[in-house]
Amino acid sequence: MRRSAPTSQDVARLAGVSQSTVSYVLTGSRPISPATRRRVEDAIEKLGYHPNSGARALRSRRSGVIGLMVPEAYGSDAVLMRFVGAVAREAQRFGYDILLVTAQEGARGIHRVVRTGVCEALILMEIGRHDERVAAVVESGLPFVLIGKPVDFPNGSVVDLDFERLGRMVVDRGLELGCENLLLFGEPGHRRHRNDVSRFLLGVEEQSRSTGLNVVLDAGDLPEVPRRARDLAASGGRTAVFGLSGVTEVLFAIAATGALEEPGLQVIALTDEDLAAISPLLATVPRVDPRRVEISERAVRELVRLLREEGATPRVTLVEPEWVQGGASRGSGVGGGGAGGHGSDGTAIEAGGAAEDSGADGTGEIGET
Amino acid sequence: MRRSAPTSQDVARLAGVSQSTVSYVLTGSRPISPATRRRVEDAIEKLGYHPNSGARALRSRRSGVIGLMVPEAYGSDAVLMRFVGAVAREAQRFGYDILLVTAQEGARGIHRVVRTGVCEALILMEIGRHDERVAAVVESGLPFVLIGKPVDFPNGSVVDLDFERLGRMVVDRGLELGCENLLLFGEPGHRRHRNDVSRFLLGVEEQSRSTGLNVVLDAGDLPEVPRRARDLAASGGRTAVFGLSGVTEVLFAIAATGALEEPGLQVIALTDEDLAAISPLLATVPRVDPRRVEISERAVRELVRLLREEGATPRVTLVEPEWVQGGASRGSGVGGGGAGGHGSDGTAIEAGGAAEDSGADGTGEIGET
DNA sequence: CTGAAAGCGCTTACAG
DNA sequence: CTGAAAGCGCTTACAG
C-alpha cells in the first residue's frame, strides 16, 4: 500500500539524464535545453514526483515553510480564522506551507522553529506592547512580518489595518449622519492596552475633539448596549453606535433583529462582507470592512518579498478600512484628509528605518523591484 | 546576527562523546549511562541545540509534522478556529507541529504533503459524503484521523460529536421542558447533505417520532426566527427553539437580547462555554456543549496512538454532547438510553473493522496500551 | 555501554 | 548545455 515515494534518481533514470539535471530543472538555477526539460518534466509527471522536503531543506536551508504564530483564542475568534485561512491560501500561491506555532509557546517557540530549521520565515499575530517574541524573532535573523502594529516598533515589516484612520472615519461618518453622540461598545475602554484598540481610540479622540462629537466609551455588557444607546439618544440627541473587536459581529446580529432600529439611533458596523450576508438587515447600515483577507495576503506577499528580494528592507503597510455600504467606497469618501499623521503619498513616517507606504488607492503599496 | 544553528557534532564535541551518542540520548533508542546522558544534556542546554528537522525527517522518515486539512471558511467560522487551536496545542504536547493544508487543494494537496514527506500523518476536517480526499488519504498509507464522521465510512479513525445523540437529547429536553414543538434553525433543511446535520436530523426524527414532539425545520433567515417562533407558539403551543451549526452562536446573541424571552418559548443553546460568557443571558437557558476542544484533543491523541502503537487499528470515537446548564451534566441526564444504535459499553458497531467506543463516562474512550 | 560509518535525497560548486 | 561528486545533519545498523 505505501510504496516509498519516487526520488529524483528515479526521475533521472526514466528521463535518461543525470540526477543533478532533474534538480536543475526543478530549481531553475541553470539553463536547460527545451528537449531535456521536456523529458524531465514528463518523467516527473508520470511518476508523480515531488522533491523530498527534508532533503531539500537540509541541503538548501530553505524549508518552504512559513511559521504562523497565532494568538490564543479569545472570545469570538471568528476573526482569527479569517486571517489564518487567508494566510494559508496566499502562501500556497507562492509555494509555501504554513506551520502553526501557538502563542502559548512564546519566545521559546520561535527559537524552536528557527533552530530546527522547520520554518524559514515567520508571521506573528497580535504582538503586545512589550512582547518577548519581538526580540526573539529579530534575533533569529529570519525574515518576519507582524500582523497587527504595535504602537512602538523598532524595525521590521508590519501589515495592519489603519486603526487610527478607522477612528477618524467612524467619527466623520457619525457626524455626516447627523449624530451628536458616538457610543462605542466591545469594551474599548477595558482593552485600551491592546495595540489596535488604543490606536483606534487615538483616532476617535483626535477627530472628535476637533469636530465636537460626544464620544461615550464602555457601553457595558452586550445585552445592555441597546438600552444604553436609547438612553443616550433620549437625553443627548441622535447617537451613532459602533463596536470594535470580534465581538462586534455577534453584536450586529442584535442590531439585525431591530433592537437598535430606532429613529434616534444609527448603527455603524465593522464587519467582513461575508458575515454581513448572514443578516440581511446589516445591509441597511453603513459598514466598514476591516479587510482581514487583504491584510493577510499582503502579509504573505511582504514576507515573500523579504525572502526573495536581495537586501529587501522591512516595510510598514497600513491598509485603509473600506466603506462597503452607506458611503463612498475606498474609505476615502469621508474626511479623507482629517487630522491624520500620515500622508497619502508614500511618506515614510516610521522611526527605525521602516517606511510606511500609503498609496493613492487607499491602501499601502508593496512595490515590486 | 544569524549564526548557523549548532549541530549534534557541536554538542558531541562539547560533551566529549561521539555524535551518535548525542543522537541516542535524543531518540532514547539505546540505553545511555547516567553520567554520559548528563554531560550530553548539559551541552545541549548550553548550546541551545535543537536537532535539524530536515535531516531528521530525511533520515528517519518522520517529520514530526501533522497535516491539518481545514475546510474553506464559511459563514461564521468561529467554530473552525476553536478546532484548529486545540489541535495545535494538543499536538504540541506530544511534540508534533501542525501544518495547514487548505481544503482548496483537495486530493492533490494530500498527495503533495505525502510525497514531499513534509507530513507524517494527517487530520482531515469536514469530509463530505463523496469526498475525493478519503481515497487519497487511504491510498497514502499515512496514519490519519477524520474530525467529522461521514455517514458511511469504510475504515479509518474518526472523532466527532455524537450528532445523532444530540438530536435525541434536544428532543428529550424539549419534552421535559413541557414543549409541544421544536423549531430548528440554522438551515438544517438546506444543509441536510452535510454529514453532521443529517446525523443530527436522524436523531431528532427518530426520537420525535417515538415521543410525538412536533418538529419544524427551516425557521427561515436569521431575523425571521423570533417571529416564526412566536407564531408557532401562538398556534401550536409551547415551543423549544434550537439552532445547529456555527450560526447558532451568533443567533444566540439574539436570544440574549430578549427577542426570544417569551412565556411560550424555550431556547435551547448549542454553544461553547466561553462563548456563552459573552452574553450573560445565555446563562439562563439550557445549553449543550459541542465539545470542540475535547474532540480536537482526542483526534490528536488518536493519531499519536496510530503513529506510536505498533499495529494499531483505527477507531471511531463519538463524543457525547454535554449539558452545561439546565440539565444533568455529562449528557446522560436525559433519555440516555433512547432508541440509539450504539451501546454505552464500548460495543463495536462500525462496519469495516473500525471499533466504536462509547465509555461509561459519556465519551468514547481511547485506551492506552 | 559507546563509537565509526553508511546513507537518507536533495542542491550546488567543480569540471567539461 | 550537462554530469559526477561532495556534503547538508541527522538515525541506525554494524562493531566492539
TrEMBL record, chains A, B:
Domain HTH lacI-type, which positions? Answer: 6-60
Give the start-end ranges of region Disordered. Answer: 326-369
The answer to whether UniProt assigns keyword Transcription regulation to this entry is yes
Q: Name one Pfam family in it.
A: LacI
Signal peptide residues are: none
| InterPro entries per UniProt | Cro/C1-type_HTH, HTH_LacI, Lambda_DNA-bd_dom_sf, Peripla_BP_I
Where are the compositionally biased (Gly residues) regions? 328-344
> Which keywords does UniProt give here?
DNA-binding, Transcription, Transcription regulation
Where does the HTH cro/C1-type domain lie? 7-50
Give any GO molecular function from the UniProt entry.
DNA-binding transcription factor activity
This protein's superkingdom? Bacteria
Spans of biased composition, class Low complexity?
345-357
Q: What is this protein called?
A: LacI family transcriptional regulator
